[in-house]
């Protein structure tokens, strides 16, 4: 049946009866399918070991618990859980999240208000809608989260890239840039950062840089969008509080999500920020989807209320830690001279830099022929200026396959380096 | 705990540390909280009978079935249901919806492709994003769905209103308008209609008008956005197929939802349209939320696959039918001379027109003082030009309260008419 429909649709796609393009908005005409997604369609064969994904491992989904919580949600809160909810989100969930921010990070709940979003992706789009005028200057890390670029790009900002090193965003270079812009009479509106276990970089911003970034925000009057999806996925090293922890002036808009500490399938995430900002984001959300799916919100609230989070985070950490180690060991063992990679303390990704002159997008098909896939790094740069990098995921693939995948990748790289 | 947070937040809202407005985009500065929502905050007392809502009755939620389906979703499809999904939607659900469109409405599945959205509201926003350039002319019914106006308005269209009568949109007046615009060298881009049991009007577009609307779409080259949330809520009269049924050229973009035939809390809805249009809507959705909550989609798919829909629709109809009758009888019995109302064959709303000169928004507080609430009609008009109307909901309130509510409303009206 599935194939039948798809065949009919393909036929239909050939049978043009309207001049479809004529109806699209100018913005829509400029929207292109992500080439990464197109590339990755090549990878659906089970022969290929894909290190390209960005998915949590389903082994970490607490299925029995979710069954129990879903039942509880209906039995005890059915009328609310199955009904429309408020745009801002299910109040008991907002309260639980506020409590969690206080307990886990020391962020006083009186400092923030919480709005629930349909994944952090919706949060990013809403932030674009509420804060970005065409031409506004947005600072992003280089590399940065692909889909954040996609969300923001719709609002026509001007991106400025600041490179990462092992301690996260190069705040010294940011400061130089800010001075330079100021001299030109220009101003940065937002700085977008994933400070902890960055996607795709894997690196974590040091405590000193976090504080310095806040000082700069105050001095140069910009807001910080802090995206924290991986915060809890720490496998080694010391916890560092979110930037929001030091935020006295309310300049940090913090994005958190249940996707990595519970399950992505609920699409339940949150924005924690100044009540004034939340109020405007709420109004913007009214026109977008009325409310986030309430059933998922009630289940997430029960998850926090039941005190399951801490124990489950331990389980997730224990599950991913060896995978990270296996990947780092395999990289050490098999990668040829001249290839470098980050050594993350957590998260889901390792970032690999290969010798200059090798274009990882051009190399992609050859790697797939050898039975391994990765994400070519180019698309993670706002200006697409860097060709010799790639992102590897270690959370999804079985342990043995990580080793075999790195082996194959090393072979593909050796050939490319010879050519 | 709830109150504690809210108190702290209110305090915070007073303690301004940043010049918040300075950071908002120009569009965001123009976004205002819906005054309707603000008005309705007055109505939270249990003493007041609210006919203002737009909610399905939770008595119609099949709770036991949902518990069973949620369990099944996790047991049989847990890895998919709890994971990220594709932007277009969970394939088994898309197939089931296509099947349903074929069986219930006779729309051949080869004619459409389906994309799942987070409620029809997201569908409306996506349509705005993909089709509306600033200044584009959008025809809406007068009155029309409030939140559709809100969604479209973000994209800066020019609205043209076409009045309703008992057979839905006045297609003759639309044709006049189209001719007039053509003479001016202008063109309508989209016509937005809720043809069946219109919100807020309650009326249904006749078969003849549906066909004529399509002819006009072809002649004047516009697209039709057909919003069909209430299609299945028919309590009397003969079924009329959706406009999409007669759509040979692919000009109709159809919006359907599970909110009224299952439960709104899942926020699972769909757009059925030409594959070329769906493809662009899909790309637009990538930047907005990656995917609709998968858990809800899997449950909805199991709901359709298990064949529960037909029987459940019968139950919903049996539950709402007497409520509609009770409201219509009470209006007949209690309303003073000079007050008119629609006689819907289904849906959730009755639309009341009171004598000119009475402003239902001004009258609202007095009605609340008498213990009844409604939605003043003004906001349902794109130009806010009509003051003497109101929307009444009959699905949510208990039967006795409908009668008592109408009695109180009649009293408030009599006083206003005397004044």
UniProtKB/TrEMBL annotation, chains A, B:
One of this protein's Pfam families, by short name? Aminotran_1_2
Q: What organism does this protein naturally occur in?
A: Palaeococcus pacificus DY20341
Q: What is the lineage of its organism?
A: Archaea, Methanobacteriati, Methanobacteriota, Thermococci, Thermococcales
What UniProt keywords apply to this chain's record, in alphabetical order? Aminotransferase, Coiled coil, Pyridoxal phosphate, Transferase
Molecular function as annotated in GO = pyridoxal phosphate binding; transaminase activity
Requisite cofactors = pyridoxal 5'-phosphate
SUPFAM superfamilies (UniProt xref): PLP-dependent transferases (SSF53383)
Which Gene3D superfamilies does the record cross-reference, listed alphabetically? Aspartate Aminotransferase, domain 1, Type I PLP-dependent aspartate aminotransferase-like (Major domain)
- The identity of this protein, by name, is Aminotransferase
Q: Which InterPro entries match?
A: Aminotransferase_I/II_large (IPR004839), Class-I_PLP-dep_aminotransf (IPR050859), PyrdxlP-dep_Trfase (IPR015424), PyrdxlP-dep_Trfase_major (IPR015421), PyrdxlP-dep_Trfase_small (IPR015422)
Q: Which residues form the Aminotransferase class I/classII large domain?
A: 65-409
Coiled-coil stretches: 164-191
Quaternary structure per UniProt? Homodimer.
Q: Name one GO biological process term.
A: alpha-amino acid metabolic process
UniProt superkingdom: Archaea
Identify its protein family. Answer: Belongs to the class-I pyridoxal-phosphate-dependent aminotransferase family.
């Amino acid at each position: 049946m599935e194939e039948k429909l798809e065949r009919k649709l393909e036929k239909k796609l050939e049978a043009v009866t309207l001049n479809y393009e004529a109806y699209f908005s100018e913005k829509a005409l400029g929207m292109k399918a992500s080439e990464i997604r197109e590339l990755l369609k090549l990878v659906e064969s089970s022969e290929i070991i894909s290190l390209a994904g960005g998915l949590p491992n389903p082994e970490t989904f607490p299925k029995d618990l979710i069954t129990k919580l879903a039942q509880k949600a209906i039995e005890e809160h059915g009328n609310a859980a199955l009904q429309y909810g408020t745009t801002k989100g299910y109040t008991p969930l907002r309260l639980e999240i506020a409590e969690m921010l206080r307990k886990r990070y020391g962020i006083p709940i009186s400092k923030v208000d919480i709005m629930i979003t349909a994944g952090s992706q919706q949060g990013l789009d809403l932030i674009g809608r509420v804060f970005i005028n065409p031409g506004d200057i947005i600072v992003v890390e280089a590399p940065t989260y692909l889909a954040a670029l996609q969300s923001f790009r719709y609002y026509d900002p001007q991106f400025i890239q600041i490179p990462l090193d092992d301690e996260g965003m190069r705040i010294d270079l940011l400061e130089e840039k800010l001075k330079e812009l100021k001299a030109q009479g220009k101003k940065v509106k937002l700085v977008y950062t994933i400070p902890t276990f960055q996607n795709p970089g894997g690196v974590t911003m040091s405590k000193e840089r976090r504080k310095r970034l806040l000082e700069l925000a105050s001095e140069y009057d910009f807001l910080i969008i802090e995206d924290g999806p991986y915060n809890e996925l720490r496998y080694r090293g010391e916890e560092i509080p979110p930037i929001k922890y030091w935020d006295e002036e309310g300049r940090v808009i913090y994005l958190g999500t249940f996707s990595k500490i519970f399950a992505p399938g609920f699409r339940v995430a949150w924005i924690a920020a100044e009540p004034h900002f939340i109020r405007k984001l709420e109004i913007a959300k009214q026109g977008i989807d009325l409310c986030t799916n309430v059933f998922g919100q009630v289940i997430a609230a029960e998850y926090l209320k039941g005190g399951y989070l801490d124990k489950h985070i331990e389980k997730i950490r224990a599950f991913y830690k060896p995978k990270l180690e296996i990947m780092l060991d395999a990289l050490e063992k098999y990668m040829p001279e001249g290839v470098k990679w980050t050594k993350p303390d957590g998260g889901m990704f390792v970032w690999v830099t290969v010798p200059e002159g090798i274009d990882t997008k051009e190399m992609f098909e050859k790697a797939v022929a050898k039975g391994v896939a990765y994400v070519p790094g180019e698309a993670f740069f706002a200006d697409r200026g860097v060709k010799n990098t790639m992102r590897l995921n270690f959370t999804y693939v079985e342990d043995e396959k990580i080793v075999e995948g790195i082996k194959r990748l090393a072979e593909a790289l050796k050939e490319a380096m010879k050519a």
